[in-house]
Amino acid sequence: MTHRHAQRLSRRTTLGLLFAAAAGVMAAGMPVAAQAQAKGELQVRIGYQKYGTLTLLKGRGTLEKRLAEQGVGVKWTEFPAGPVLLEGLNVGSIDFGTVGEAPPIFAQAAGANLVYVGNEPASPASEAIVVPKGSGLRTLADLKGKKIALNKGSNVHYLLLKALEKAGVAYADIQPVFLPPADARAAFERGSVDAWAIWDPFLAAAEKQLGARVLADGKGLVANYQFYLASRTYAEKNPQILRILLDEVAKVDDWGRNNPEEVATILSAQTGLGKDVVALAASRYAYGVKPVSVDVIASQQRVADAFSGLKLIPKPIVVKDALLPARQLATSTK
Fold first, then answer.
1. pTM of structure
2. Which of 82, 124, 205, 211 has the highest CB neighbour count under 10 A?
3. 79: closest CA among 124, 32, 47?
4. Contact between residue 230 and residue 44 where contact means Cβ atoms under 8 Å apart
5. b/e per residue 284-313 (b: at least 16 CB within 10 A)
């Protein structure tokens, strides 16, 4: 069996697991366009950020070609961070998007009607706590009493919690400064914060352009999964559109893993960042969309429990409630 053939078989197996249960709610053999038209749905609205496979998918244009054959359009909307992307999902301005670990926790706790539909492998090196190149801060323990910029409810919020825990510093003993990435970078450059918890490609840009020094990245602290989520209503009505979407994500994953130079070219064009910056960020990506397994849900539950324990979300949540009812969590990665 050739490597390419093995990849195709693996992708088919993965996507079969992702949507085997959901497909049963559709009329057998009914074309996607006919299903969509019957429901007034002829479009999938995708929220994306300046990172990951969706940015590559948008840049390559393969999804539009594939769905056009089914009479389905694609609309892309860029968001600066995961929390606002999921706000868009919750209010109905998008149908599908990708975020890190923490945003779905905050969204679910706020009552958002979303569902997990897949995830990329862990990528702990893709986020970090950085300090200015001339900073006297050398260890995580040095963060005590310091101002740390971060996007509230984003993946790096959990990284910060785990980093402080490792250092024996109470969350109450630091000064979180909640800012979106652009404002956080400005504050970091001005020296009005002591450290910045941030993800790629903003992390890579800080390293390459500002000489920022990594105090600690996610390795040994967090998994940092990239999740694909959809509104529950859209997922239940249009599983075949999501099947095509995730099939194209899987193809881009296969392509991106083997074509780093082309990945950097596309990401540079899509983000407006230099190729050296996006090449560094892309070198830390983890490719390979897969079903949300028992292990991954357990990991997400630990994230939720950490935020709940610190009263950073309004109530405890059960992460598996944000799965399609028909999904059977029998696809453990063990």
1. 0.84
2. 82
3. 47
4. no
5. bbbbebbbbbeebbebbbebbebbbeeebb
Distance CA 181, CA 148 (A): 13
Exposed/middle/buried for 2, CB within 10 Å: 0-12, 13-18, 19+?
A: exposed
3-state SS string for the chain: CCHHHHHHHHHHHHHHHHHHHHHCCCCCCCCHHHHHHHCCCCEEEEEECCCHHHHHHHHHCHHHHHHHCCCCEEEEEECCCHHHHHHHHHHCCCCEEEECCHHHHHHHHCCCCEEEEEEECCCHHHEEEEECCCCCCCCHHHHCCCEEEECCCCHHHHHHHHHHHHHCCCHHHCEEEECCHHHHHHHHHHCCCCEEEEECCHHHHHHHHHCCEEEEECCCCCCCCEEEEEEHHHHHHCHHHHHHHHHHHHHHHHHHHHCHHHHHHHHHHHHCCCHHHHHHHHCCCCCCCECCCHHHHHHHHHHHHHHHHCCCCCCCCCHHHHCCCCCCCCCCCC
Residues contacting residue 30 through CB under 8 Å, at least 6 positions apart: none
CA 251 to chain CA centroid, Å, is 18
Residues 142-178 have pLDDT tens digits of 999 999 999 999 999 999 999 999 999 999 999 999 9
Q: CB-based burial of residue 278 (10 Å sphere; 0-12 exposed, 13-18 middle, 19+ buried)? A: buried
Instruction: Give the mean model confidence (pLDDT) for residues 256-262.
Output: 93
- Cα separations in angstroms, 147 against 171, 173, 187, 194, 259: 12, 10, 10, 5, 39
- The answer to whether 19 and 239 have CB atoms below 8 angstroms apart is yes
Please give the Cα distance from 221 to 2 (Å, whole number). Answer: 37
Cβ neighbours, 10 Å, residue 31: 13
What dihedral angle (degrees, nearest 10) is formed by the CA atoms of 305, 53, 152, 325?
Answer: -40
Task: Extract the tokens encoding 132.
Answer: 């200015």
Q: CB burial class (10 A; 0-12, 13-18, 19+) of residue 198?
A: buried
